[in-house]
Structure prediction request, 278 residues.
Amino acid sequence: MKNASKIADATGKLGVLLVGMGAVSTTTIAGVLAVRRGLAKPIGSLTQMGTVRLGKRTDGRSPLIKDFVSLAALDDIVFGGWDIFEDSSYEAARTAGVLAPDLLEQIRPELDAIRPWPAVFDRHYVKRLDGPNVKKGKNKRDLAEQLRADMQRFKQEHNLDRLVMVWCGSTEIYLTPTAAHATIAAFEKALEENDPAIPSSMVYAYAAIQEGIPYGNGASNFSANVPALLQLADQTQRRMPARTEKPPNLIKTGSPRPQAALGIKGGLNKSLKRKGKF
Ligand SMILES: NC(=O)c1ccc[n+]([C@@H]2O[C@H](COP(=O)([O-])OP(=O)(O)OC[C@H]3O[C@@H](n4cnc5c(N)ncnc54)[C@H](O)[C@@H]3O)[C@@H](O)[C@H]2O)c1
Prediction:
């Protein structure tokens, strides 16, 4: 195979960094915790229950994907993340209203322990949102350095072997590529000059890639998919998932509802309707 790369086995602990701890993130966190505790089954989860067919249909060889590919076990996952609100994952999950309160109550201590770190946020990119849990810095490069410090501290505190980051924050405004996105040098100059062409999501992506952490985007906003960040990722020898890696799709196959994917009761649609998203 051309350009085949060696993928290391998924051993040790995996830190999952979630940017934005709202409905999608807290449903994912609560689902994993509930499955771990035996309170729910991961129905529909590609990684937990999906199979892969090997050989011909008639060979009857369809092992579980998790037995065929080296994947992190749910027990080895540690969640961390950022939000502009200080609510714990328990409080945010209750506000989101996706999962049944009785289920959340059973995992409340673990959810309460996962509290968001101060975010990199600028209302210019998400007009109808504001919150108190926001970092201050002399420019966007300084803010990226603060994010890197968060990641390093989290890795050390939990003795993590690997980290991944997924943007689950509110969708940012529409932007088009500019010269600031063309090269690493131009991008870093733009960070220092607080160029409006660099939205908050790109500051997170830059910080993650600098740390050698793969970055996935769960929203449709323009984020890591610019030449400068792709070049940087090449330099740090990491791969980036595709631009729209919708978070629920990371844990489900056919179901449009992540909570169904996790085998638990509730309705994400309810949460979205309440927020006037449709
Ligand atoms: N809900 C779904 O089914 C679904 C499916 C696919 C993709 N998405 C996308 O995923 C994203 C999250 O969806 P949701 O339903 O969880 O929304 P949500 O509004 O419940 O949560 C988003 C969270 O992101 C936080 N946030 C915004 N900007 C931030 C920043 N710069 N740094 C840190 N936190 C920030 C907000 O405070 C909020 O808590 C959205 O972009 C959405 O379009 C949602």
The two ends are 45 Å apart (CA to CA). Residues 19-24, 82-85, 96, 119-121, 126, 129, 131, 168-171, 200, 218-219, 246-248, 268, 272 surround nicotinamide-adenine-dinucleotide (CB under 6 Å). The mean pLDDT is 87.
